[in-house]
Amino acid sequence: MFLKKGYDDFMQVIYIGETIWYAFKLLPFLRGNDRIKNCISYFEGAEFQPQDNTEKEILNNSAFLFQVMSKFYIVSIGCAEILYAIPALFSDGHDLPMPVWLPYSVTSSSVIYYVTYFYLCIAVVYTGFATSPLDPLIGGLVFQAVSQLKILKHRIQNPQNFVKEQSNTTGIYQTLAECVDLHNAILKKDFCEYEECFSWTIFNQFLGTTSVLCFICVAITTVPLASVDTIKYTSFFFVVNCQVLFYCYFGTLLYEESDTLVTAIYLSHWYEYPIETQKLLLTLMERSKQPLILSVEKLLDLTLDTFTEILKRSYSLVTILK
Questions:
Q1: Cα(163)–Cα(168) distance, rounded to whole angstroms?
Q2: What are the residue ranges of helices labelled H in 132-274?
Q3: What domain range includes position 33?
Q4: Which tens digit of pLDDT belongs to each residue from 131-159?
Q5: 53-85 and 134-157 helices cross at what angle (nearest 10)?
Q6: Of 186, 241, 171, nearest to 212 (Cα)?
Q7: What is the pTM of this model?
Q8: Cα 195 vs. chain centroid, distance in angstroms?
Q9: How far apart, in Å, are the Cα atoms of 76 and each of 59, 79, 81, 151?
């Protein structure tokens, strides 16, 4: 099937644009499969496993929250794809969900039309569901680092829970030394592995989202407010924003958790520890003064400030297009 030429439908431009940008997002997965697999399974190492009930609760709560957000995101994409396809069914003519070239006439019979229509509906919805897991996957890896930072702060403030004897200063020192190793492992994951594997993917998502948002905003202004098209465009506007919000929200959580690590160390019982243990905590404090901020191609930070900036830039481009 080939797309018809010469049509001027904003929704088709949006759909095609999203598909093209998704193809660019997949390039890193074709070039470095082994490295990406290692990045995905990185937090399965022994040093990241929970050691008490509090840490298990932290991981369980994080997993539950992430599952709720991911399911909501995927369902939203499914609804947007369905709203994209349904209006054609209620049009005056034998319209299809998207304009395509066919070797036969869909108006020749109702059976041919409905079979073709539902086939294209399945193709459209399948595209949405097939591409939707990628964003939660990449964002979820950051959320795993957030959970590990919470566990790290718990171990720093309660090192006595991880030694056999609470008065065993050697055991406390060893526990805090393991906390330093855990912090180093998180840094390696986020800055070395994560940015190298997924920076290009996220950058293309941001670039494509800015362009698509412009067309959606222009499309909303060109249709009647009380119409099916308005609902269709609004649902796409919501989903496209969620794609970027996934990365920016989890990146902000990572920044906030790492930014409060120094406070967690200060609120521990450091004044009761020997000098060598205090020096260990001081070293960790100095290293934690610079919060973890993930960047995309060294150009954009994964924060909510970047998300709001994308919305501003999109609105600016809308005024130019109008």
A1: 7
A2: 134-157, 169-187, 195-222, 228-259, 261-266
A3: 10-321
A4: 778 888 888 888 888 999 999 999 888 88
A5: 160
A6: 241
A7: 0.82
A8: 13
A9: 26, 5, 9, 32
